[in-house]
């Protein structure tokens, strides 16, 4: 099925998210859509998948104009999209989520769909247990589930919006293999990304968007420098962080075991000092997630002790941790961090800690303006958070971090950010460490960890199996440790 977008415009008030975009997608090919944060990638794909309506422009299938103005219409035409943030039903099981949209009555025909799910999993090398609740799956697994659901609906054009942010490199390999298989069967794939390496590894052809317009297009083999110039105008400079001598111990875990996630946390003893930046590496769900939640007071340890600045705080509440200067930011933006539908000002009003029952809107709006300008968020105080581009949502979350934290716990803080923004965020975070905060962050990007961390902890099956300085290791060494090999 040949697909063509012709002169697509989408205006949100004064913002021209798409400003005359045209592109063609052929069957059997993987088409990349590349661009920096806010370039208009997600908007274009939401138009194609019928999730939002276009201001003007034409969508053609095999040369014929089609409406595709609702997700149902798009999916009837064979177009389906995996969103930047998962849209599944967390409380339903994997099987039930798989069945959504395919049958009216979930109770009937469970057996049939169970068989279909299992056989699709086998085909694509996914291992999903039909009876696990979706909320217990990792982001990578939820993505696999949604992909299979779309396939089972019979889609011929699959759109993926930033599918590799926040998933492990192993899951990325599995996903890429699945996508190659899909195009070999004659389907087409559109991969939205701001990661050049992913586009180079996978795509046959790429279109670069910049400020809502097509900045250029290219076929394999790609000229990386030319692509970078199309994306940013000029390539960003590398970040070098000044290493400092760490200060007093901020947090200490002693022989901590805790439940949660896939692997829990086993027998973890770690001390982290003021001024340190600690990178957590590991396959998704290897214990980093639980480590961050134990250190933030969200999960209480089953065994062992947690000390904050020398004081035993084991078993006290999340709020007690917060009062001691611990700040935690989870990975799933639109589930744990931001509330869809509420504006930036409303988010700030919710965080207002003043002991008044009356919301001070004027004050919240002022704070919203400050956050927006300090963190260069593309949006206004009245923008609903779900109208921000993925990268701008992440910037907004970072702007909510407290003023002078002692310990910052960040789960994939640069997830979904383009290269320039990653540098910008770390420059900003560095200011916290200069004031004596310790930062612990997880990331699926080994390069990022090696670039900014003073120490790397590698998690495997709920344990810390490596605690090293980046200069004593490299991506290869870390990769081996992540897979469980320490020698
Ligand atoms: N519903 C909306 N209301 C207002 N503005 C919007 C809405 N949706 C998107 N925008 C704006 O349109 C522009 C393009 O956003 P879009 O989400 O398409 O960017 P993107 O290329 O996907 O970026 P990212 O890499 O950060 O995800 C941004 O400035 C964004 O704030
Ligand atoms: Mg986007």
Question: Key terms for this structure?
Answer:
single chain; binds adenosine-5'-triphosphate; six-stranded mixed beta sheet; 25% strand; Rossmann fold; globular; 487 residues; binds magnesium ion
Placed side by side, the strands forming the largest sheet appear as 6-7-8-3-9-10
Q: In the CATH hierarchy, what is the architecture of the largest domain at level 2?
A: 3-Layer(aba) Sandwich
> CATH homologous superfamily name of the largest domain?
P-loop containing nucleotide triphosphate hydrolases
Structural class: alpha/beta
Domain count: the total is: 2
Give the CA-CA distance, first to last residue.
50 Å
| Percent in strands | 15-25%
Question: Which CATH first-tier class of the largest domain would you pick?
Answer: Alpha Beta
Continuous helix count:
17
Runs with pLDDT <50, length 5+? none
Helix content: 25-40%
The overall pLDDT, averaged over residues, is 89
Radius of gyration: 23 Å
Topology:
Elements: E1 3-12, E2 15-25, E3 30-34, H1 41-48, E4 56-61, E5 64-66, H2 71-76, E6 79-82, H3 94-99, H4 110-124, H5 139-152, E7 157-161, H6 169-184, E8 188-193, H7 196-202, E9 205-210, E10 213-219, H8 224-232, E11 249-258, E12 265-273, E13 277-281, H9 288-295, E14 303-308, E15 311-312, H10 318-323, E16 326-329, H11 333-337, H12 344-351, H13 361-374, H14 390-399, E17 407-411, H15 419-434, E18 438-442, H16 446-452, E19 455-460, E20 463-468, H17 475-482
Parallel strand pairs: 3-8, 3-9, 6-7, 7-8, 13-18, 13-19, 16-17, 17-18
Antiparallel strand pairs: 1-2, 1-4, 4-5, 9-10, 11-12, 11-14, 14-15, 19-20
């Amino acid at each position: 099925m040949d697909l063509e977008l012709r002169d697509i415009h989408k205006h949100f008030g004064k913002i021209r998210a798409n400003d005359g975009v045209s592109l063609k997608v052929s069957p059997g090919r993987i088409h990349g859509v590349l661009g920096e944060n806010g370039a208009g990638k997600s908007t274009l794909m939401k138009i194609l998948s019928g999730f939002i309506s276009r201001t003007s422009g034409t969508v053609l299938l095999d040369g014929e104009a089609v409406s595709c103005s609702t997700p149902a219409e798009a999916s009837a035409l064979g177009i389906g999209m995996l969103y930047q943030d998962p849209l599944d039903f967390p409380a339903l099981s994997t099987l039930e989520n798989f069945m959504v949209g395919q049958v009216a009555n979930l109770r009937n025909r469970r057996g049939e769909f169970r068989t279909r799910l299992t056989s699709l999993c086998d085909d694509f090398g996914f291992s999903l247990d039909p009876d696990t609740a979706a909320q217990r799956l990792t982001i990578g697994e939820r993505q696999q589930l949604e992909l299979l659901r779309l396939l089972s609906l019979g889609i011929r054009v699959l759109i993926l919006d930033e599918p590799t942010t926040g998933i492990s490199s192993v899951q990325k390999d599995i996903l890429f293999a699945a996508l190659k298989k899909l195009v070999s069967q004659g389907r087409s794939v559109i991969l939205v990304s701001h990661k050049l390496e992913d586009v180079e590894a996978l795509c046959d052809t790429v279109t670069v968007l910049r400020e809502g317009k097509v900045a250029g297009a290219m076929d394999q083999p790609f000229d990386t420098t030319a692509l970078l110039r199309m994306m940013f105008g000029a390539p960003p400079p590398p970040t070098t962080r000044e290493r400092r001598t760490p200060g007093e111990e901020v947090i200490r875990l002693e022989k901590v075991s805790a439940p949660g996630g896939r692997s829990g946390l086993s027998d973890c003893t770690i001390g982290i000092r003021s001024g340190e930046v600690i990178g957590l590496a590991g396959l998704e769900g290897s214990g980093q997630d639980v480590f961050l939640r134990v250190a933030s007071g969200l999960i209480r340890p089953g065994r062992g002790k947690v000390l904050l600045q020398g004081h035993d705080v084991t078993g006290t509440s999340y709020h007690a941790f917060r009062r001691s200067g611990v700040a935690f930011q989870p990975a799933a933006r639109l589930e744990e961090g931001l509330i869809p539908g509420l504006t930036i000002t409303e988010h700030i009003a919710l965080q207002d800690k003043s002991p008044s029952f009356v919301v001070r809107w004027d004050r919240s709006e002022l704070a919203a303006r400050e956050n927006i300008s300090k963190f260069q968020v593309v949006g206004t105080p009245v923008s609903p958070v779900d109208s921000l581009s993925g990268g701008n949502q992440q910037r907004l979350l970072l702007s909510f971090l407290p003023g002078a934290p002692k310990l910052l716990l960040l789960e994939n803080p640069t997830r979904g950010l383009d290269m320039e923004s990653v540098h910008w965020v770390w420059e900003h975070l560095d200011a916290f460490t200069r004031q004596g905060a310790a930062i612990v962050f997880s990331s699926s990007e080994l390069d990022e960890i090696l670039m900014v961390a003073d120490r790397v902890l590698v998690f495997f099956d709920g344990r810390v199996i490596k605690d090293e300085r980046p200069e004593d290791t490299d991506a290869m060494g870390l990769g081996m440790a992540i897979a469980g090999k320490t020698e």
